Automatic annotation (TrEMBL):
Similarity annotation: Belongs to the TAF9 family. CENP-S/MHF1 subfamily.
Organism: Rhynchospora tenuis
Source lineage: Eukaryota, Viridiplantae, Streptophyta, Embryophyta, Tracheophyta
Region (Disordered): 1-24, 117-143
Keywords attached to this entry: DNA damage, DNA repair, DNA-binding
Gene Ontology CC: FANCM-MHF complex
ATP-binding recorded as keyword: no
Keyword Magnesium among record annotations: no
GO biological process: DNA repair; replication fork processing; resolution of meiotic recombination intermediates
Coiled-coil segments: none
Protein name from the UniProt record: Centromere protein S
């Protein structure tokens, strides 16, 4: 027989497991971003004929990850404030409000995406008003 304490303990463990999984996923994403930053920085430095130190690349990767985390939180809050459960392109554009150049690039990108999408909007049929349904008879004027 399960007691009240057993149910609480298992719920606490599941929350703890979720937190551990989230931490593992964040660490995996951080490592993948670090590898991408190393690849991009080294190839760019190579084209310029320069070298870049590993601590600098690691710092750039960590800053990029922190910036992405912050932007993700901001985007979620903007969607939540608008009363939505999902994030849309306007939330992403709004999250870049501190950087006008980035905001402009995001708006241009959003316009390009809208141009590529097939037109799925249908025109609404005009609803007949209650008074419009009645047939008006001509008025005869007597002399």
């Amino acid at each position: 027989m399960e007691t009240l304490g057993d149910g609480i303990g298992s719920a606490g463990e599941s929350d703890k497991e979720r937190e551990e999984e989230a931490a593992e996923e964040a660490a995996l994403l951080r490592d993948r971003l670090r590898l991408s930053v190393i690849s991009i920085a080294s190839s760019h430095a190579k084209t310029l004929g320069m070298t870049i130190s590993e601590p600098v690349v690691a710092c750039i990767a960590d800053l990029s990850f922190k910036q992405a985390e912050q932007m993700g939180r901001d985007v979620e809050l903007f969607a939540q404030h608008a009363g939505r459960k999902s994030v849309n392109m306007e939330d992403v554009i709004l999250s870049a409000h501190r950087n006008e150049h980035l905001m402009g690039l995001l708006r241009d990108f959003a316009q390009e995406l809208k141009g590529k999408e097939p037109c799925t909007e249908r025109k609404r049929k005009k609803k007949a008003w209650k008074n419009d349904n009645k047939v008006q008879e001509p008025i005869e004027m007597l002399d």
